[in-house]
Write a structure and sequence with these properties.
It is built from 2 helices and 11 strands, in the order ββαβββββαββββ. It is mainly beta and 168 residues long.
């Protein structure tokens, strides 16, 4: 029987969990990354969802993760998300939203965050108006962008996995 995979993140100071459908390879990669993570570090984990969004999660904000699965008959279709870039900052109820002037700049930011080491300095990108947004990594709970904006530099991460386990 095939399985569909989901991650449920319990985040500091958030009343609702972050629930995302993912490929099995993303779930496995997170499990390995958490084994090496030290709580308190501003280390980010970048993952692609099956909903067409890519998240960069500050592991210092994660209180717990539930690795979930459901039986599945058909492989899930990864959808295209044409939404905005979102940044949830510590202590804010709603994420900041905006577009990007240069998608390659946003892709490079996700590649940098996915490097696995602690991010110590401010990072950011230019919005659709050409205005710079700089972010303090210790204040970022998560960062999300449409996955299609990040194609290219991140294509080799998890490519070719349908998200399910089992034969069809």
């Amino acid at each position: 029987m095939a399985k569909a995979y989901y991650l449920r993140f319990v985040l500091r100071e958030r009343s609702e969990d972050l629930f995302v459908p993912v490929r099995k390879s993303e779930s496995d990669r997170l499990e390995l990354a958490l084994a090496d993570a030290c709580s308190g570090d501003a280390r980010f984990f970048v993952l692609d969802t099956l909903k067409g969004r890519t998240f960069a999660l500050n592991l210092a904000e994660v209180q717990a993760v539930r690795f979930l699965w459901d039986p599945s008959i058909l492989p899930p279709d990864s959808t295209r998300d044409d939404g905005m870039i979102e940044v949830l900052l510590r202590g804010r109820a709603e994420p900041l939203e905006g577009g990007a002037d240069d998608p390659a700049e946003v892709a490079a930011m996700f590649v940098m965050l996915d490097g696995g080491s602690e991010v110590g300095s401010f990072f950011g990108f230019q919005d659709e108006d050409g205005e710079l947004l700089q972010l303090n990594p210790r204040e970022v709970v998560w960062l999300a962008a449409p996955t299609h904006l990040l194609q290219g530099p991140r294509d080799d991460l998890g490519a070719g996995d349908d998200g399910l386990e089992g034969d069809f």
